[in-house]
Write a structure and sequence with these properties.
Layout lengths: L2 E7 L2 E4 L1 H10 L7 E5 L4 E10 L4 E5 L4 E2 L6 E6 L5 H14 L3 E6 L10 H14 L7 E7 H5 L6 E5 L6 E3 L9 E6 L7 H9 L3 E4 L7 H14 L2
Parallel strand pairs: 1-3, 7-8, 7-12, 8-9, 10-12, 10-13, 11-13
Antiparallel strand pairs: 1-2, 2-5, 3-4, 4-5, 4-6
Length: 231
């Protein structure tokens, strides 16, 4: 059954313009057809279409809905977008499929890309949520300065993955279960020494992702997969 993102108002689901266009023109749904809707906050609903048009679709909810199972960890990945933006888009899609709670695209000293299409990124994230049969849309920020993330305090573990020598935890040593984790992944030129120093001063722990040098998007996915597997 096709899934749509909707605004739930009492016992009705209201689809936005893009979802309505897809429902009407692409899938050619009609009033009376059954659909599944999600609210983006973790709830699935079975519904029956009442009104179908290119600009607005409305559906009646068939029941109270079902909550998506919650993960036993919270993961916020803050990562610098790559120069070739399609690599970042691919990473976003796969990270959402594996399961992630928050993604921030980060502006760093060595960043080669300082502009991006945030709306396109959100669409990729939402599409991956629906494709992977989830109901919770991860929080998304773009672009956020590295310095802003240093002040984050609502995390039980804060990690910065970098290529410089120093005291680091190996990713295999991490425990994500029952933790709120913030992990920083730098640009293709890595974090600057000053950024690493400031992160450590602000309570971040150095993180090693292994002996091989990983591309930025690969490093991001390595963290998401580790959280997925090490819980």
């Amino acid at each position: 059954m096709n899934s749509f993102i909707a605004n739930i108002v009492e016992q009705e689901a209201v689809l936005g313009p893009e979802e309505s266009l897809h429902c009407c023109k692409v899938l050619r749904k009609k009033p009376g057809d059954a659909i599944q809707v999600i609210d983006g906050a973790g709830m699935f609903y079975e519904a029956t279409l009442l009104v179908v048009s290119e600009k607005l679709c409305r559906a009646k909810l068939n029941g109270p809905g079902k909550a998506q199972d919650k993960r036993d960890y919270y993961l916020h990945l803050a990562i610098a977008p790559t120069k070739q933006i399609d690599r970042t888009e691919w990473m976003l899609e796969k990270a959402v499929e594996l399961g992630i709670d928050e993604i921030s695209l980060m502006r760093c000293h060595n960043s080669e890309r300082t502009h991006l299409n945030a709306d396109r990124m959100r669409k990729i994230i939402e599409s991956a949520v629906k494709q992977s049969l989830q109901a919770r849309i991860p929080k998304f920020q773009a672009l956020i300065d590295f310095s802003v993330l240093l002040g984050e305090e609502n995390y039980s573990q804060k990690l910065i993955a970098h290529c410089e020598p120093g005291d680091k935890l190996n990713i295999r040593q991490l425990h994500f279960k029952n933790q709120r984790s913030l992990v920083l992944i730098g640009p293709e030129g890595d974090f600057s020494n000053e950024e690493i120093k400031n992160a450590l001063i602000n309570g971040f722990q150095g993180l090693s992702l292994g002996e091989t040098r990983l591309r930025t998007e690969t490093a991001g996915l390595a963290v998401v997969q580790a959280a997925f597997l090490l819980t």
